[in-house]
Amino acid sequence: MSKQLTFLKALSFFHIGGKAIILPFLPLFLHLQGFSSVEIGTIMGVAPIVSIIAQPLVGFVSDKFKTIKKILILLYFAVIAASFGLFFTAEFWVVFLSFVLFHFALSPCSPLIDSMTLKSLGPERRHEYGKIRLWGSLGFALIAGLSGPVLVWIGLDKIYILFWFFSLLMIFLLFFLKDTGQSSAPVNLKGVGEVIRNKQFVTFLLLCFLIMIPHRTNDTMLVLHLENLGATALLIGLAWGLAAISEVPVFYYLTKKIMELNHLFILGVIAALYTVRWLLYGVIDSAVMITILQVSQGVTFGLFWIVALQTAAKFVPNHLRSTGQALLASICFGLGGAIGGTVGGWVFDVFGSFVMYQLMGLTALGATICIFIFYRVSAKKLNQPSVSREA
Questions:
Q1: In the chain, helix, strand, coil percent, each to 5?
Q2: Domain of 9: which CATH number?
Q3: Number of structural domains in the chain
Q4: Tens digits of per-residue pLDDT, 263-282?
Q5: Cβ pair 171, 44 in contact under 8 A
Q6: Where does the Major facilitator superfamily (MFS) profile domain lie (predicted)?
Q7: 3-class secondary structure for the chain?
Q8: Is residue 156 part of a domain?
């Protein structure tokens, strides 16, 4: 088991670290290739829509055939194949369709890795998830910090070299992992339907969705906001790196403690912290200060993901674990990203980035109010004190 967990840490490190190349620098690469802002927005904007379909579908296939390892290997090979059309042509429709295929293969990997981690840990050690996931944050921080100078050195047009290296490394690591904790229970669409009809789970997903709309807007628009404030490529990489490294202590120290508290109460606190974060982004006009404020990622997204993942694990049976994690990811990052990216991009173009962040703060405030109202109603129904712990 120790070997399994060691390679899961490495898998998390390089998978999330690899995203530090695509997320901040792919829009800049496409701009270098001569694409307009509208074309870049169209290409990048399709990602969350693809995720909504790809993540639950691939998650269900993984549960159905009771393997995560083999599915992940196939997905990484598909990502490499699709990247040829993304990196080596300047034709819009070729790049657009290649990115659709690219993201269809890449987006299910994160929830599948989370599912493999939870299954490897088992219910008794589930609280140790954060100590594995923190390696992903470390990977993102380190690679985001290094990729900027490396891309300046080799040229942004050679971005595919870094991405292929990490993709092949992921495939190599997967050969050392095993599919563990697989349930013998049959998997069918009826079982998936039962999960979707769980009112508590669906309500929780909707509350998470409200929080993730402005978060995903920031994921899409932060680079452009920092550029408008005069940030260099090095400072942009540092901003992403600081955000990732701030998650590490949260994942390490708070995972077990957070599991002992009422998930709705903690979710409301997280939404309130997000409100403060986005409102500060909406009034500060210094790229350096915005970069420093990226350390708030730990107490916002880091806490959010612990609560969301652990709560989903409670609601979803083991034999549908990958499907449940995929549903969570598709709602938060897929649907949340589709709405956040589209509306946020429109506000950015029409009213500017400061107004965009101010509206993001108001959205997070609305989410905070909704969560605490639902928390109070739920607490009264269960005849529990408002700050009581879950049974």
A1: 85, 0, 15
A2: 1.20.1250.20
A3: 1
A4: 889 999 999 999 999 999 99
A5: no
A6: 1-378
A7: CHHHHHHHHHHHHHHHHHHHHHHHHHHHHHHHCCCCHHHHHHHHHHHHHHHHHHHHHHHHHHHHHCCCHHHHHHHHHHHHHHHHHHHCCCCHHHHHHHHHHHHHHHCCHHHHHHHHHHHHHCHHHHHHHHHHHHHHHHHHHHHHHHHHHHHHHHCHHHHHHHHHHHHHHHHHHHCCCCCCCCCCCCCCHHHHHHHHCCHHHHHHHHHHHHHHHHHHHHHHHHHHHHHHCCCCHHHHHHHHHHHHHCHHHHHHHHHHHHHCCCHHHHHHHHHHHHHHHHHHHCCCCCHHHHHHHHHHHHHHHHHHHHHHHHHHHHHCCHHHHHHHHHHHHHHHHHHHHHHHHHHHHHHHHHHCHHHHHHHHHHHHHHHHHHHHHHHHHHHHHCCCCCCCCCC
A8: yes
What is the residue whose two structure tokens read 């990732």? 244
pLDDT, tens digit (0-9, with 9 covering 90-100), for 215-240: 989 987 898 899 899 998 778 878 88
pLDDT at 1 over 90: no
Q: How confident is the model at residue 182 (pLDDT cuts 50, 70, 90)?
A: low
What is the pTM for the complete model shown? 0.81
Mean pLDDT over 132-136 rounds to 93
Determine the structural domain holding residue 280 and report its residue range. 2-381
Q: Look at residues 156, 153, 150 and name the one whose alpha carbon lies nearest to residue 32.
A: 156
Mean pLDDT of the chain: 87
| pLDDT value at 114 more than 50 | yes
Would the pLDDT of 385 be above 60? Answer: no
* Residue 389: inside a domain: no
Q: 195-209, pLDDT tens digit by residue?
A: 777 788 888 899 999
Separation of alpha carbons 100 and 96, rounded Å: 6
> Can you say whether residue 390 is alpha, beta or left, with left for phi > 0 and alpha for psi between -120 and 50 degrees?
beta
Q: Look up residue 130 and give its two tokens.
A: 């954060």
